[in-house]
Write a structure and sequence with these properties.
Length: about 350
């Protein structure tokens, strides 16, 4: 009988994240493939020590995971090996987690630089430099990237479960729109949300609340609320949730946001981006290259092979496409935030 534990202890059974699998196969697989990962992907296993950037013996012991089956933890930007087969000789030179790659692609290299990716959910990362900031506000501490032998750069991250998924819910479950692209025009057909707030806690609330008992609510309904108001409330929910994560980051970092770089599928929605700038009270900036995750991976690989020589050179590659300046009066912003937070309290304690 095949004993997995015995073979794993000998290093004959290997484990890793998806980057590990890809790098191993690209560099030869069973015929000499390189078994590595980078600090950002390794951190998401919950098995890596954030300080030493090495596998944590205590965590491995708690989960009875043999060290021999795990990949070597390397930097995010270095040549791990050379491809074989069709791509023979091509250097395999970068690995980054999804959101860390987006941070890198947005050239958020300075302490305090912050990006938000608007997809099915939202993922907001703020660069904290070489400091590991322990959050007291419901955020997570994560490596942002490590270049070669340099020091690791850390981030605070806040995750929002439902963003673009709310638009899909309007389309697929309620039938309010036929396609996702219709939501902006429908929402823009009314001047505000009509007093209605949609808290999309469909599977609980993520940062900064972390309430698995929460469920979605629509609050503030009157007879005057139409499907257009609900469409607007759905878009606004993404901006409100982002604002709450930004507020949590300000507490942990001891400084507010100067501007927010944005990417992902929802940043083509001008109404949402303007409302986001209004709620944050700072400029919201969209880059010319929207696929920042892919761009970040390319930037890291290019640094590793010498195509680019420095972070400053990468900064010059980044260009702005559009900027939204805040235009909402402070009193109105405060009132909307207070009403949103009241709506959030109504979604707690639904699951016992």
């Amino acid at each position: 009988e095949f004993d997995v534990a015995v073979h794993a202890a000998r290093g004959e059974v290997l484990f890793g994240t998806i980057d590990t699998w890809l790098i191993w196969n690209l560099t030869g697989g069973p015929d000499g493939g390189v078994h590595v990962t980078d600090v950002t992907n390794a951190s998401r296993t919950m098995l890596m020590d954030l300080a030493s950037l090495a596998w944590d013996p205590e965590m491995l012991g708690r989960f009875s995971i043999p060290r021999g089956m795990l990949p070597e933890i390397r930097s995010s930007s270095e040549v791990y090996g050379r491809a074989t087969g069709t791509l023979a000789g091509v250097p395999v030179a970068a690995a980054l987690g999804d959101q860390q790659a987006a941070l890198f692609g947005q050239c958020c290299f300075g302490e305090g630089d912050t990006k938000n990716t608007y997809g099915t959910g939202c993922f907001l990362l703020a660069n904290t430099g070489e400091r590991r900031v322990a959050s007291s506000s419901g955020l997570i501490t994560t490596p942002g990237y490590r270049i070669g032998d340099g020091a690791a750069v850390y981030c605070l991250e806040g995750s929002v479960a439902m963003a673009g998924a709310v638009v899909q819910w309007l389309r697929d479950n309620l039938g309010i729109i036929a396609t996702s692209g219709e939501v902006e025009a429908l929402a823009a057909s009314v001047p505000d949300n009509g007093g209605a707030y949609l808290v999309p806690a469909f599977s609980g609330l993520f940062a900064p609340y972390w309430r698995s008992d929460a469920r979605g609510v629509i609050a503030g309904l009157t007879r005057s609320v139409t499907r257009a108001h609900l469409a607007r409330a759905a878009l606004e929910a993404t901006a409100f949730q982002t604002r709450e994560v930004v507020d949590a980051m300000a507490v942990d970092m001891g400084a507010g946001l100067g501007s927010l770089r944005v990417d992902g599928g929802m940043v083509g929605n001008d109404l949402l981006m303007q409302f986001q700038a209004d709620l944050l009270g700072v400029p919201v900036v969209r880059p010319a290259v929207a696929e920042t995750t892919s761009l970040g991976a390319a930037f890291a690989a290019g640094l590793a092979v010498g195509y680019w020589s420095s972070l400053d050179e990468l900064r010059r590659c980044w260009t702005e496409d559009r900027r939204w300046e805040p235009a909402m009066p402070g009193e109105q912003r405060d009132r909307l935030l207070a009403e949103w937070k009241k709506a959030v309290t109504r979604c707690f304690d639904w699951v016992s």
